[in-house]
Amino acid sequence: MLYREAGQFKTTYAADQQLFPIRQDRIGIAILLAVVFVGVPLAAETPAIAGAIDFNYWFSGVLIPFLIFSLAALGLNILTGYAGQLSLGTAAFMAVGAFRVPGVPMLASFILAGVVAALIGIVFGLPSLRIKGFYLAVATLAAQFFVVWALTKFGWLSNYSSSGVITAQKLVVFGYAVDTPVKRYLLVLAIVSVMALAAKNMVRSSIGRAWMAVRDMDVAAEVVGIPMMKTKLLAFAISSFYCGVAGALYAFAYLGTVEPAGFELDLSFRILFMIIVGGVGSILGSFLGAAFIVLLPIFMDLSAASIERSFGFALPAGLVSNLTLILFGALIIFFLVVEPLGLARLWQIAKEKLRLWPFPH
Fold this sequence. Notes:
Blueprint: H1 13-16, H2 23-45, H3 47-50, H4 55-82, H5 90-98, H6 106-125, H7 134-153, E1 166-167, E2 172-173, E3 176-177, H8 181-203, H9 206-216, H10 218-223, H11 228-255, E4 257-258, H12 265-278, H13 283-311, H14 319-338, H15 342-356
Antiparallel strand pairs: 1-4, 2-3
Helix pairs in contact: 2-8, 4-8, 4-11, 4-12, 4-13, 5-6, 5-7, 5-11, 6-11, 8-11, 9-11, 12-13, 13-14, 13-15
């Protein structure tokens, strides 16, 4: 009975088209933002709570990578989920954003990382004007190998480091040092929140409708006057921009180093798995998929440790990691067969059931 639209009348077009038309959704989002922006940092600063929970681990090892991968998955979802253009080069666009130009202010460098990644994305998005489907995925795969090769081949991209590894510069925003896990968490959270809101509005605009028209039937979209070149390349540019910013955050707020080995093909597949599990063509699905991929290995490790303590024997080395990979594959097959729209669709179905409960129809 708590999730009802009864009595919520919309008397203007603006009210009918607002981002969260149901009052309970607006309240829920406000509570969520208050918890993640205020509640979690305050809990980390409270001695009684901080003594019981290792917040440094949760910030550095769980929350920050979850937010960064959510942003990267959001970028891929714009391209694949909304525009219908398959891509296997997400990690390459993240790598482009990770290599920062020295001397540029931090926030400006994040924007520059996104812009440069967008330009690279446009270049590798040109084949989409002629090919699609599996062939386009192979063309974007070329970006993955080319970018990693270029970062290794040209020494000036890595400051001529013999190992190819660059120590990330300190995070300083407007003269304020972002040097603790909670500060890095708040910085990443603010950037991801703003960009997620921008993406949510973008896919509801004429640009988003053009992407979805191209995704559903590109020939019909072209017949009704949607420009194919502009629409597809814009999808590649915006998707790569998001991935570039995610790559910059990945290097400077999470890893602390920049190296081509951190942006291999495996990372592209992990992000692709996130949108498959979370939901293709869904902003929420990007976050749900990232949470699932980040938290599942942690859950498996905790389960293995619990089994070892309970039964008094040690599991074989590598068993848990291999079981995690097997479970990843099984769940991807499950979602592709049973629920192609992923966890986001299951959440939507649950909300629809709540709106009708206790009535069957």
